[in-house]
């Protein structure tokens, strides 16, 4: 019994280290913001600036962050214009993506812990992006230029902002990425997973009034939670079975 207690204590300590693994309700996944210096503790209402304003009913960011997006590059030490000016249409999609990244209150089910990033302790990973959204983004960017495929990992950061590494040269997006899906999934290190509209609930970057992404997050949260509680139930049954088997011979 002592050893079982000890093991349980150790598991609790390990779990506390990652707050994500202690979430034990559907709402737990829905009332959470990414753990970052620019994010709120939990989603709430708040005025937001410019193209981020659609998230004003419920968001994880502050107005000052959304205002700073409108300033000239670089933004949070990131320079979109690393191969000459991006076209205004293409730039608009990237800014909308940054609004989502900083402000979306619907990413709880996709958060993962990361180490070594200054501005955040978590990121989100493989969030389902509607194919249609990805296609629009790609259509407006495919004639622009960049030098690396993965903007999350491939740049030279030694100067403080991202620059093209020595081995690279500026090329059209179409030479770097094979198609829309390759672009959307790789440009930010698999933040997004492109899904066909009909195959799975998916996120949009632009909306008016009601945020449709809430339902996408809710369905995923329910799925994770029911799988998690099944695992717990199975674990408890196994534990009881072992206890019974150990007890019976002594009776
Ligand atoms: C932005 O606003 C929030 C909340 O008002 C504040 O806590 C934070 O320090 C501000 N950040 C900057 C860079 O001004
Ligand atoms: C890149 O795309 C532009 C616009 O579509 C085109 O004019 C140019 O020739 C392309 N450059 C290369 C190197 O393919
Ligand atoms: C895909 O989803 C978007 C956003 O929900 C919607 O506006 C669009 O009509 C859908 N497209 C198709 C082909 O179903
Ligand atoms: C939950 O389990 C089902 C069945 O094994 C699986 O298809 C689904 O992807 C799981 N959901 C999550 C969020 O892991």
Task: Describe the protein.
- With 251 residues, the protein is mainly alpha-helical.
- It has one domain.
- The protein contains eight helices and six strands.
- A two-stranded antiparallel ribbon has the order 1-2. Strands 3-6 form a two-stranded parallel sheet. The chain has a two-stranded antiparallel ribbon with strand order 4-5.
- β1 and β2 form a beta hairpin.
- α4 packs across α5 and α5 crosses α7.
- The longest helix is centred in the last third of the chain and has 35 residues.
- The model has no long low-confidence stretch (mean pLDDT 90).
- Bound molecules: 2-acetamido-2-deoxy-beta-D-glucopyranose (4 copies).
- One 2-acetamido-2-deoxy-beta-D-glucopyranose (NAG) binds next to loops.
Keywords for this entry:
binds 2-acetamido-2-deoxy-beta-D-glucopyranose, Folate receptor, receptor, 7% strand, elongated, 6 strands, 251 residues, Folate_rcpt, signaling receptor activity, two-stranded antiparallel sheet, mainly alpha, signal
Task: Give a short synopsis of this structure.
By secondary structure, this protein is mostly helical.
Oligomer type: single chain
Q: Assign the structural class, choosing from mainly alpha, mainly beta, alpha/beta, alpha+beta, or little secondary structure.
A: mainly alpha
What strand order characterises the main sheet? 1-2
Helix content range: 25-40%
| Hetero groups | 2-acetamido-2-deoxy-beta-D-glucopyranose
User: What count of domains describes the coordinates?
Assistant: 1
Number of E-type strands:
6
N-to-C span? 17 Å
- What letter string, H or E per element, gives the SSE order? HHHHEEEHEEHHEH
Query: How many strands, which pairing sense, and closed or not: the largest β-sheet?
Result: 2 strands, antiparallel
Q: Cα-atom Rg, whole angstroms?
A: 22 Å
Outline, from the CA principal axes?
elongated
Mean pLDDT: 90
Extract low-pLDDT stretches. none
Counted by DSSP, the helix tally is 8
- Report the portion of residues in β strands: 5-15%
Family: Belongs to the folate receptor family.
Organism: Mytilus galloprovincialis
Keywords: Disulfide bond, Receptor, Signal
GO molecular function: signaling receptor activity
